[in-house]
Amino acid sequence: MSDQAGNTQRGFWADATGELALDRYSTIVNMVDDGIYQLDSEGRFVAVNDTIVELTGYSKDELLGEYVSLVLADEDVSRIQHEIHRRLTDDDRRDEPIEFTARTADDDSIPCELELQLLVEDGTFQGSMGVVRDITGRKQEERNLRQERDIVEGIVETSPVGIAVVDADGEVTFANERAEEIYGRSRDELSEFSHDDTRLDLVEENGDPLETGEMPFNRVVTQEEEIHDQILGLRRPSGERVWVSVNGAPQWNEDDELERAVFAFEDVTKQRENERKLEKSEHRYRTLVENFPNGSVGMFDEDMRYTAVGGQLLDSLDIEPEDRIGSTIHELHPDDLVEQIEPYFQSALEGEADTFEIEFGDRYLYAHALPVRDAADEVFAGMLVVRDVTERKEYEREIERNNEQLETLFEVLPVGVVVAEDDGEIVAANDNAHEIWGGDVFDADSVAEYEQYPVRWADSGDRVKPEEMTLARVINGEEVTDPEIFEIEATDGERRVVEAEGMPIRDETGEVDRGVITLSDVTERREAQRQLEESERLYRTLAEHFPNGVVGVYDHDLRYTLAAGEKIGDPAPSAEEVEGTRMPDLYPDDAVADLEPLFRAAIEDGETGSIETEVVGRHWRVWATPLRADDGEIFAGLSFAQDITERKQRERELERTLDLLERTERIADVGGWEINPETQDVFWTDHIFDLLEVPGDEEPPLDEALDMYHEEDKPRVEAAVEEALTSGDPFDIEVRLRTVATGDVRWLRLQGVPETVDGEVVSFRGAAQDITERKQRERRLEELIDRLEESNERLEQFAYAASHDLQEPLRMVSTYLQLIEQRYGEVLDEEGEEFLEFAVDGADRMRNMIEGLLQYSRVETQGDDFASVDLDDVIADVRDDLQVRIEENDAEITADELPVVEGDGGQLRQVFQNLLNNAIEYSGDGPPRVDISAERNDGQWVVSVSDEGIGIDPADADRVFEVFQSLHVDDEHTGTGIGLALCERIVERHGGEIWVDSEPGEGATFSFTLPAASDQKR
Predict the structure, then answer these.
(1) Domain check: are 635 and 670 in the same one?
(2) What pLDDT was estimated at residue 13?
(3) Predicted local confidence at residue 442, as pLDDT
(4) Is the domain of 762 the same as that of 780?
(5) How far is the CA of 773 from the CAs of 687, 781, 783, 932, in angstroms?
(6) How does residue 802 score in pLDDT terms, banded at 50, 70 and 90?
């Protein structure tokens, strides 16, 4: 390019005249995107194109003739003048662009780049021409790149994992502070290391030396593949072995040449130690690490026939791709599944993409059906992408070239990363952060909006204020390098424990521009620790307090390594005796013969079993089961033994009781039944089947069972059952039924007792007794009673008539005897007087006997109606009647406070008078002593009259109540032999009974029962 304004070379268009060429040049100038201008030697505009007009906001007229300082910042005017002066004297600087700030008509500032061409003619400076470009976008990109670089540096420095960069030659070029801690070496020391330095002593997860081909650097750089979660061990200078989980990815330069490898590694030493402790203490908790793609892809044609199938999801479903290719969905799947998925397949073939979820066996699959198009945009097939969302979701990221390093780091970091602007607006979060929070929740625009995140301090459970959250603190300029532990409630409802660290990102002025934090989900680690502690506590508690038995652990030699439990030492051997001793050496031969096959089956064959045996005089139930390591290998056996001696005794007692119950059922002719109130199902004992002559052993439904009852009694049974189920009250009824086999009518006594809970009947049980024979006896007895009542009535009539008819001749005999005594008494000798006395006495006794017989026959017919009778009043009247006799015999009669009873007062007065007369008559040599008492027995009173007289032989206790029976000769005691029989008749009329308790010479106690009055006073 010439600097000469008057260049004489031919123009761009050689055949154009000056005016035409000018027009063409003007057109080209205005078509160029950059601004083009020309200044004179004074710095005034002499030409500008449309881009300059648009850029500055001034019109051409406003610009032409004006000094260029119009559109320049003050500091740029002198700088450009100085640059022109330098270029006039230094040709080497002429092609270097100049950056300046353009000032617009609206007083805005626009960063620009200027390519300056000086116009010099004959060595004289004539002015300049320049091309101006708006570099606002480029400046923004530079700021973005600088921010991204700052973010990366912040993440690297605050990351809880070690980060190292290794160049293509295998030399360590960078390591963060965490890497220094893990390696135990400074960055300067690490910079002298190669990736395979022998001082690192790298080993595989199983402890074997790490082969060269398996080293992270070789896999990433040589094989050009990403690695994830490779576990290896390295040696610190102190000799300590550290275990790390390594993630790595290669990075290429713009020429697609491998430039470096980035590695992120996490110290998992403690995690491995916890896992080993957990495995040894209980072997109940396992960790399953999933590290495989979780999905499958299939392509199908217009007939919905699979043409290609692949993906590791098929392996987990035990499906071979070859079994799918060439078959249609109709041939592979059941109709109900085809009915669900066919519409989506059809939509894909018609050009519509859609998603759906299905349940496939015990898994839930998320599927995306979409069309496959050819170059002409025609759909020629469909594709089905399936993910197993039962266990996890796949995460996909788009990696942009201009932030490749950041995205790569995000991809390999096993932690969540969140970035916020200085005002608190969250602008970025990686997939791990979303996974920790259970979804896309990072939409806060300010610190105040952090209130929406449910975060609590893990130790205290107190809510964390927005300004106390790690992200708020770092954008406030604080470096949070000591991990803070929080408990969060994720959007999926899960509670997680999270460690957070963070660093502020500052701009070139030192002001906080952004903040970045890292989140680590330590829930499993803390849960593993809690489980370890809980497992140890539970196992220790189980071993020491194993109920009613002993728990032990034994090795392959059947030697106990642990023994504990409530029965250890009593009656079982002590722990000291058991631990370290082989089982066959500990117990008798007969017990060993039972136990050894059980123990060996557990530790050698992995079988769990149990047996019963007798040891140390007790019955034991013994279980044995294998203890396995994580790899499934049996390393010990676990035995449990429970003392079941009491249970065995209870079982024997139960067998005897059940046998006795069955015998009792048959002897008493009683069977049991139960009705389920909810289902109406019926259960019978065996004797019910025999009782009802029902064949088989299956109970009929309730309605059929009710149909067996006699047509007249069935409504009573139905009503009783329904009332019991409704009210919960028991019932006791006697009904008839017809037996199934013979149709005979039998009488049953049915008793039902519902069981209620909270007012509702939950169980209904009862008994059925065959009372047919009793009913027959009752019927015969009723017939006999009817005949006896008829006979008694006739006898009473006869006795009354006989007694009445005998009184007339007896009165005549008595009258004549009195006349003989009056007229001839003086002429009778001693023997005659004695004969006359015998005759008069015999007539008196006969009269008394007739009167007593009349009273005896009239007890039922001539008695008064029952009413309330105060026995204290009755005794008082009897005392008055017997006052003379009581005084003559110096008798003492005492009485307790007596009750009010229901009865005939006159007849009860006769009972007490007869009993007191007898007590005085048979008192013996001493004065009569009589005591009257009463005792309540349910609804009746037992009244007793006790004396201290001559007593009665127990053999005669029943005979004394018979008519005309006297236990003494007439010359010893007077009496008709009717008094006690009359008492019995009166007591029986009152529904009671009378009896005597006595021994000769010990006195006698006559007791009888009377019904209590409803309005009695006591």
Answers:
(1) no
(2) 42
(3) 86
(4) no
(5) 17, 12, 15, 44
(6) low
